[in-house]
Design a protein that fits this description.
The chain has 586 residues and is mostly helical. The chain is built from 21 helices and no strands. The relative contact order is 0.14.
Length: 586
Amino acid sequence: MTDPPTTRAPRGPVDDDDRYKWTALTNTTAAVFMSGLDGSIVLIALPAIFRGVHLDPLAPGNIAYLLWMIMGYRLVQAVLVVTVGRLGDMYGRVRIYNAGFAVFTFASVLLSFDPFDGGHGAMWLIGWRVVQAVGGSMLTANSAAILTDAFPDEQRGFALGINQVAALAGMFIGLVAGGLLAAWDWRAVFWVNVPVGVFFTLWAYRTLRETGKRGGGRIDWWGNITFAVGLSAVLVAVTFGLQPYGGHTMGWTNPLVDVLIVGGLVLLAAFVVIENRVAAPMIQLSLFRRRAFTFGNLAGLAISIGRGGMQFVLIIWLQGIWLPLHGYDYGDTPLWAGIFMLPLTAGFLAAGPVSGYLSDRLGSRGLATGGAVLFGASFLGLMVLPIDFSYWVFALLIALNGIASGMFASPNSSSIMGSVPAHLRGVASGMRATFQNSGTAVSIGVFFSLMIAGLAGSLPHTLTGGLQQQGVPAHIAGQVGNLPPVSSLFAAQLGVNPIEHLLQPTGALAHLTAAQRQTLTGREFFPSLIAGPFHSGLVVVFAFGATLAFLAAVASLLRGTGTAAKARGPHEAAPTPATSRHPQEK
């Protein structure tokens, strides 16, 4: 006799919640992957982009275009994520998130249809990259909050781990994808977003729903203005500081840089004062009373600075020195650099989900701290690596670095997001993303400044002497030798042989012997000359990265034995003592 139909449990809200959380994870993971991908895909595609819009990559005025193509996207994301996270808390996280997908996709379409050449073509790309970053900010600021709303405590670390690994994997997969797509057509690096963006935008509008509590309230205009202008001023100053100024190798002596930094810091100080006085602040400074939130974000900032700077330094090391010395043509080095960086991505992909899963069972502090220590140890290993290294040793070290980043990122995000009350998860997610994106943007300025300072002392003399030994007239050798070191670095990143590029217009090559021309324009001359000065800079850069990693480990230990507050989500019935300690946050 069969059981009557009435004995079967009806499908209820629990089943619906279970399906919804996986839908939210799939959609938000695709979103942060795309946002991370577009933060790096342009790096490898820059040679093809510069050729496509007919820009000389080594012309002094064009260095600014290159810097803004790299920095503009991160700058906008760093500035906007807190604001759009707050808007998500006020008007609905899914609503802001969905709008972000539409903006991101629309900007991707227009990026691929650049109608101009030269500087105007570059400005078109920079402008629409800014719009694309606005959409990306709306996605990244609200994705973690949507997941925190959708998943119960015991699965939250795993979900946030998957999300974080997708964002980081997007950064490094973009390095390979940029090379592959640019080999076909430079516009394809933007086309790739269009079908994915259209599909997931429509799917997000159809399936995602508001599961968190909206905070209501109004916009803190003065807080938003002082924060956005202040942080923008500091990050713009970093960009100008990397450009040559008045005969100096960098622009840190430029009065405009000083004004921007001082003015930006004053505005950020005013922002803190405003946030303590207004009734509906842009961010909740009281969140910093929570140890897990404060020290988790400080640790994340330190790791972000180290990771972002290392990415660019390794690309330049591979493209400018190691690959040419091993027989790769300059035009092929961007693609191969991305391929040889794959162990780093593999480390992310392997460690991120596992550490997120383990953090749900073992806690966040031990895993995040161990990841930060391993991250620093990998920097120490890279610091002692010879300039012409054995690839398998290099691959092992960057794989360990990737594993360390994955070990750190998932538990750290879970700890931060689990420490805040449910109605502030949007702004907390935005604050976490601001620390991360600001760290990446600042890291470029810090690491490049250290590297350029190391090159400036010996590169001009080394380059001038090497050219003269091959028969180049002294005055021409002096001109080329005094090329700003930042140009040499970006020449390496763009897959350009600067010696051939700079000597060709002078006519000096025509007066040299065939053997001299072959030496100067070959693969080994420039890498061999730059190797010594570059390695000196690498030691300083990697020592700084290791110091940041160990500071992150200390901050991670200080977060406490567990999350400071198990903030209640839709699956939980009552507030916890941690949230009741701060009634002003309710």
